[in-house]
Every structure is written in C-alpha cells, then in structure tokens.
UniProtKB/TrEMBL annotation:
It comes from Melastoma candidum. This is Uncharacterized protein.
Amino acid sequence: MQQDLEHLLEGQGLGVSILPGKGRCLFAASRDFYPGEVIMRQDPYVYVPGNSDGESRCDRCLCSGKLSKCSACQVAWYCGSSCQKSDWNMHRLECKALAMVDKDKRKFVTPSLRLMLKLYIRRRLQQDKVIPATVWDNHRLVEALVAHMSELEEKQLVLYAQMANLVNLILQWPDIDIREITESFSKLSCNAHTICDSELRPLGTGLYPVIAIINHSCAPNSVLVFDERTAVVRAVQHISKGSEVFISYIETAASTATRRKALKEQYFFDCLCIRCAKMGTPDDIKESAILEGYRCQDSRCFGFLLRDSENEEFMCQECGQARSKEEMGKIAGEEKDMLEEASTRSNHALSIFKKIENLQEELYHPFSVILLRTREKIIKILMDQEDWTEALGYCRLTISTYERAYPGFHPLLGLQYYTCGKIEWLLGESDDAIKSLSKAVDILRVTHRANSAFVNDLVSRLDEARAEAYYKLSQCT
Ligand SMILES: [Zn+2]
Ligand SMILES: [Zn+2]
Ligand SMILES: [Zn+2]
Ligand SMILES: [Zn+2]
C-alpha cells in the first residue's frame, strides 16, 4: 500500500522521504510548484462536526442551520434526508452502539470520542468490504502515523486510557484492543486537523492521513485550507524541485519562544525551521519583542523594549528611555482583573474589552499580537451590533499589524482586507473598498480555490464597487 501511495504521489510530482530525527517528509520531487497551485488534496478518513461555540452541525456536510436529530441515537444531526442517507453506511454501526448508551450519559459522547468510534467503525467496514478501501483511503495509512506515546505525560496517558475504556464500553466489540485505542487517541491529538470554512471558522475535526505526512514550518511555503470537508494544500511561495513542502500546525504570529512551546507541547518536536533557526539572533529578539513585548514610554516612539542587565527596567532599543518593572506590573495587574471581568460579565463585553484595549495600548508594542487579538474581539462585537463605522476604524487599525505579522499570501491577511472592504462598501466608501477588496482578491485567489463560491462572491463585490466608482466618475465629467 505504501508503495502504491508513493507511486500515486510520484504522478503528481511529489515524493516522500524519511529523514533521520524528522520522520516522513513530503518533497516537490520532480517539478516546481507556484503560488496558488494545489499540491495535494484529500478527503478525511474520518471526521466529526463540533466547534468551540458548541453549535450543532450536520454530521455529513457540516452545515449549520435547520437540522434534525437522528431519532434513534439522538446524537447525530442532519440537515436533510439526503445527508442522512449518504452518511448511513458510516453512522449505522455508531447509531446502534450509541442507542444502547444510557440517555443521560450520551451527553458525554464528545466529538473526540465520536471521532475515535468512527475510526474503528471505518476500519471494520473496510475490512468487511462494505466501504471500499483505496490507496488514499485505508486504515494502513492511519497505522503509519506517529503516536508519541513515550513522550506523553502520565496525566494525559491516564485520560486517553479512560477515553479508550469508554470507546470499548460503547462499541462492545469482543476483539477490541484498549491499548491500541489509547495509542490512537494520541495519534489523533497530533495528526488530526480542524476543518474550517472559507473564512477560517472552525466546523469540525478530521483525520487526513496523507496530509499528515507534511511537516511544519513557522514560515511555511504552503497553506492548508478546506473545500467543504476536503483538505487542500496550496503553495503560497515558489517551491522549487527538490524542496520540502511545509504547512504550519500553529498560529505563526507569535514569538519564537511561544511557537516552540506550542509545538513541543502538542506535537513533541523542537522546530528547526528557518525562522526558529534564527533564535537568539538580534533580528529574532527584536521580532519577538515586537510581537509579544512592551512599548516605549514615549507614545511617538515605535522602538522595542528589552530587559536591562539588572532585570529591573526595560530599555527602549530606539530612544534609550527606560520603563520600570513596577509601573508596567501595575498596568498588567489591571489588565488581568479586566480580563477576568470580561469572562464573567459577557453582557458588558464591549466596554470591558475597550478598557482592556486601553490598558494594552499603554503596555504593549503597537504591533503586538496581544493587542491585535483584543481588537479582533472588539471588531466581532461591533459587527454583531452592526456598528459599521466603529468596526471599520478598528479593522483599519489591525491591518498594519496583520501585514507585519503575516508576510506574503496568508489567508488571515486576505480575510482581514476582505472584512475591511465589505464594511467600506457598506458605508459607501467605494474607492477605499476597491483598494481593500483588490488586495483581498490578490491573496485569497492564491490561498482558496479560484472559482469557489467564496472567491466568486468576493470578485463580484469588487466588480460592483468598480462599476459604481466608474459610474460616479462618468457623472463628474
Ligand atoms: Zn448536511
Ligand atoms: Zn443515529
Ligand atoms: Zn519554527
Ligand atoms: Zn523609545
């Protein structure tokens, strides 16, 4: 099977190599790839709906909206009979098993537990030839994934073992191997991907065992996006023949220390990418101090601050002014109190987040991602309240940070231009809308499928804005 897969990848100009200390790597083996080109696409081996906001989604197509529960198990949701029918092959065994679980205990059947149930059900269905197995779609690919069992903390191991016991209790198959399921939970934790819509909102989780071969870089040359539930890897830089293909597993707009910690904790490796290789150099220290560090006392100065040798003050590396740890600690304390308040008083979220923003403006560098995240929350609330004028002001404030933090073709940068352009258009600022939407198109045409509904919608908004500007111009002359 492995040879068949390699043969198939070869046909697409790709190759898999095993490098010592790194494991499997995907290469552009026999050709170059250019920005916007699809490197690889794969349907999930198994997937499950579920996102952080707990909204129900169709088990088959992951849409939200008008859904009905599967009457037998009361766990799965469907948008209609066509999705329910196409999912029945997979859901039949799961439904039967879930229906046997006590009704009040079914709420403990979390998305990750369901993903595991589906993993074992799919393996069985392929063994019994109810569902065909192919080179891209078979359990052997799952077996080849790394599990990192020896690196797991005791606490995590116990949790996975408890979850494996639950899977066993639900399925009640005689030949089940709890140790193997425990290992599979660990595999899912470092190999499964969050499925997102075109605007990068999470919809669910899926396992794509061939995509999982692609290694991480904090400055990746490709991006993973989703076309419905199909994972698509697209080049965002020129990848020359012989180079390794990289995607990013984590948020890349973070200091080197933060990125390396996240990668070590969830994926168990020390990143050796070109960005991490600069760790400790003056460039890297400066970049990290801007992304997560403090601002200069002088509000007109954009210098970054570093701790002095006595560890009592922070010195601006631009103008030499010092800020005392005590003064900054006081603001940080107020910020912490406010953040706690935000989590408990959600009905006053806007005014609380604006207070947090004020404190963070005093504390952090103007291009800090901490400040950026707070402003993103404020934009979301303002847009929900349809306060477009203020939302646009905030959106524009974030653009320069986005441009710094996400170089090149990054979907988040494209999406932020898109949001800005949509609001400008809504407020009748068509010249600005054209500029923002054009920038969005330039980026999102590379990261997303050019003729997808999402990109078509964006392009038609841009055409509309251009037509209106042209009309206005013709009226003036
Ligand atoms: Zn559906
Ligand atoms: Zn059911
Ligand atoms: Zn890295
Ligand atoms: Zn300064």
